[in-house]
Please model this.
Amino acid sequence: MEIGIWWDVRNVRELVNKKLEEKRAAGEIGSALAAEVDVFTSGDSYESLKRLGDDLKFVFITSRASLHHREGSGLKIDVTPSAHDKCERCWHYRAEVGADAQHATLCGRCVSNLYGSGEVRKYA
Model:
């Protein structure tokens, strides 16, 4: 990826970290992995973040990160506590924790990484 793209990603990550710290200070989350993030933006920032796809959650170190296109300019970041269970291996809060009866405390990603073909990550 180009330097300009990482500059955009780094700047948004810094703002996400500030929002995460606000939630932590308010006692709403214990760690960043206990959070889910929605980023609303447009222009170059949107295009830079879009290239990361699902790896965005790894860049923000959150259990979920979703990117939404925003009409006009500006950036909006929503941070919410995850409503899902915590995977005992990766500590991500995921809807599919416990979906595999043989591995009731693991998420689907960890089950795949340990017992299947594993995940494909491109950037993070």
Q: What stands out?
A: The chain has a mean pLDDT of 93. The first helix runs from residue 3 to 25. The chain has four helices and five strands.
